[in-house]
Amino acid sequence: MNKKRAFLFTLLVLILGLGAIAIYRFNFRKSIPEASLALQVKAVLTNNGCLACHASDAEKPFYSNFPVAGKLVQQDMRNGLRYIDLGKVCQELEAGKPVSEVNLAKIEQSMINESMPLTKYKMIHWGTSYNDAEKDVLTRWVKETRAFYYPNSLAAPEFAGEPLQPVPDSIPVDPRKVALGFKLYHDTRISADNTVSCATCHPLHKAGVDGLKTSKGIYDQIGGINAPTVYNAGLNMSQFWDGRAADLQAQAGGPPLDVLEMGSNWDEINGKLRADKEMVKEFASIYPEGINEHTITDAIAEFEKTLLTPNSRFDRYLKGDKNVLTADEIAGYHLFKKYNCATCHAGENIGGRSYEYMGIVADYFEHRGLPLHDNKDYGHFNVTQDSVDFQRFKTPTLRNVALTAPYLHDGSAQTLEAATEAMFTFQTGKEVSKEEIDKLVLFMKTLTGENPMMSYVHPGLE
To answer: What is the pLDDT of residue 76?
Structure first.
């Protein structure tokens, strides 16, 4: 009799439990609203608990105070916000503003990998995973947003929706300014001691980098940060690792005044160039106002706009040439997407479109074992003074990456393999095999493009 009662009691508990789950799932799963596609996406993200970890104003759940669970919750919330702020994305959706290419790729890949919400979150919050209707909403939104805000007509139809797109062959420029900017780019008179030009740290025949951990300036002074490539820099959303320059012209005005780089000032630079009759004549033919800070930096920026590197083997693959890549290189590209590399390194420039936290899942700077280098290690915080941006750096382009060692903002990774391993250690926390690393590197080597300037060796820079 007691066994029968125990069985009936257990059965009742089971039925009630299953009923509770069914009621929870029914009530939890809100229907997609009859609204614009953007607002439907906002509803999908909100209804599935995505903002619980990916929003700056997310409230901690009651179990965040539990001894073991609490630590995991706080860690997941911290890492989630470091990766993407979906609170801001929802604000953009609400306001009808475009969501960045990078955030599009992150949301898309989380859906493909079924990595969001986390499994442990779904165990507590039943029903928080995308159903087919929600996946359809997200898929259509990503496709339409890319086509409308980030169009690229160069890819073959089957690759039109890829997170990576081909580099354009050129962008409109003024040929007269380009010619003048080329001269100024190689002119050492812009530095205080007449020894350093833009090309000193960014030689065109070396893929636009000097190959040093950190660059040398006047009087052989050592800078505190690795020199990024000048090639395709015009496709970046901003310039410098911390994004302190809005565009190429603003960037061109920085090094001449930096005490470690060129150590000069505009009165001195203008005076030197105005003493050159031919230079005065060339400026006057283009700029009625003559030689000054604005016209010098404008000409340099115009030249740098021409430093695109189209027609890499990967670009030709995206354009429809199926035979240009090997099977291992294609496999490397699939791994590049699978492991979320194509989220931060997205778009035409395969990078340069977002500020990413260095050390999402592990503390990079603690592991490095060196004190923070003044503000060079502070990242975008230098610009915003917002603690959220501390140690967030502009993602570097991966175009021509096989030619631009060493890597990372501090130049600490000497090889492409080491840089790739660092990304898995500090950014994703995923374990990968040597074979996978090798295939990823093979893929990245297909990103080397073409530009006539890549073979130009300026006298004195051999």
So the answer is: 83
Dist CA 183 CA 6 (whole Å): 91
pLDDT at 295: 98
Q: How far is CA 9 from CA 1, 2, 13, 19, 302, in A?
A: 12, 10, 6, 15, 80
Phi, psi dihedral angles at 148 (to 5 degrees):
-85, -50
Residue 357, judged by CB atoms within 10 A of its CB (0-12, 13-18, 19+), counts as buried
Question: Which residue in 255, 180, 245 sits closest to 210, CA to CA?
Answer: 255
CA-to-CA dists, residue 272 to 133, 277, 289, 399, angstroms:
66, 11, 17, 36
DSSP label at residue 118: -
Q: Do 175-307 and 313-447 share a fold?
A: yes
Class of domain 175-307: mainly alpha
Helix (H) or strand (E) holding 110: helix 101-113
Beta-strand ranges (E) seen in 13-163 are none
Q: What is the pTM of this model?
A: 0.90
Q: What Cα–Cα distance (Å) separates residue 412 from each residue in 136, 364, 385, 419?
A: 43, 11, 26, 8
Query: Which amino acid does the sequence have at 251?
Result: Q
The predicted structure's pLDDT at residue 9: 57
Q: Is 426 exposed, middle or buried (0-12, 13-18, 19+ CB in 10 A)?
A: buried
CATH architecture of 313-447: Orthogonal Bundle (1.10)
User: Phi/psi zone of residue 433: left (φ > 0), alpha (ψ -120 to 50 degrees), beta?
Assistant: beta
CA-closest candidate to residue 47, choices 123, 163, 126, 161: 126
Res 7: pLDDT: 59
| Whether residue 450 lies in the annotated active site | no
Domain residue spans of the chain: 29-151, 175-307, 313-447
Q: At residue 380, what are phi and psi to the nearest 5 degrees?
A: -65, -15
Average confidence (pLDDT) per 10 residues, the chain, 462 residues: 60 56 49 89 90 84 71 84 94 96 95 77 69 92 95 94 96 97 98 97 97 95 95 98 98 97 98 98 98 98 98 98 97 97 97 97 93 90 95 98 98 97 96 97 98 92 74
pLDDT of residue 122: 62
Residue from 195, 177, 194, 180 nearest 271 by CA: 194
Alpha helices (runs of H) in 150-292, residue ranges in sequence order: 175-185, 198-201, 248-252, 266-274, 277-286
The per-residue pLDDT for 59 is 80
Ramachandran category for residue 400: left, alpha or beta (phi over 0 → left; psi -120 to 50 → alpha): left
**Annotated catalytic residue: which of 101, 261, 356, 436?**
261
